Amino acid sequence: LSLKFGDVGNLKGLVIRFLLTTSYYQLSVQNWFGLHRLQLLYNHSIQATFNATRIYAPASYSYHCEHVSSLQRYDALLIPSSANDLSKLWEVTFIDFQIQGFNIEEGHFAYAKDCASFFSPAILMGLVMSLILLLVLAYALHMLIHLKSLDRHYECKASPAYFAQMKDNDMGDEKEPLRSSGNESYELRNQQFCKIYV
């Protein structure tokens, strides 16, 4: 598959060539296509060659990726084929890249297999946080299930105040001041009692 741009600046006859392969995989029971190599040509000669990695899809699908690039910050799906050629001098990046080599119908792309991984860092972080929250919830439910009510309930009440007649043997040290008036004296007592329910 060749994209011909013609003359671009100092580049005469710029062509980007995609070398696609197709193969049959018994495990998936269908044909798959893949981008094997990318070549940059200008001045009627090959100037740079990149090997493509992980760019493949079922033959009846198209392949889509937000970035297909030779740069490490975009996951470097294009790798210079040799250290001896000029490929290392080039930086190639395709944005919103979509390709389909076979089974094209009515000039439209088929359903796209996206390059986004199912286990990106954001998804992994979400899974880890969900696992932590589930563990906390399970621990809380475990504690609630095994929570036992108190075996004893204490209820303390104060009895109504009453006046009890003081006897001489209960007076102790205060016996003399209370008898100074010559009349019988009474002491206000507040008695508490507790009920224990078992």
Automatic annotation (TrEMBL):
InterPro entries: Ac45_acc_su, VAS1/VOA1_TM, VAS1_LD
A GO BP annotation: regulation of cellular pH
Pfam families registered for this protein in UniProt: Ac45-VOA1_TM, VAS1_LD
Keyword terms: Membrane, Transmembrane, Transmembrane helix
V-type proton ATPase subunit S1 luminal domain: residues covered: 1-102
GO cellular component entries: bounding membrane of organelle; cytoplasmic vesicle membrane; endomembrane system; proton-transporting V-type ATPase complex
Compartments, record wording: Membrane
GO molecular function, one term: ATPase activator activity
Main subcellular location: membrane
Topology versus the membrane: Single-pass membrane protein
Segments traversing the membrane: 118-141
Family assignment from sequence similarity: Belongs to the vacuolar ATPase subunit S1 family.
PANTHER family the UniProt entry points to: ATPASE, H+ TRANSPORTING, LYSOSOMAL ACCESSORY PROTEIN 1-LIKE, VACUOLAR ATP SYNTHASE SUBUNIT S1
Protein name from the UniProt record: VAS1L protein
Organism from which the protein derives: Oceanodroma tethys (Wedge-rumped storm-petrel)
Gene: Atp6ap1l
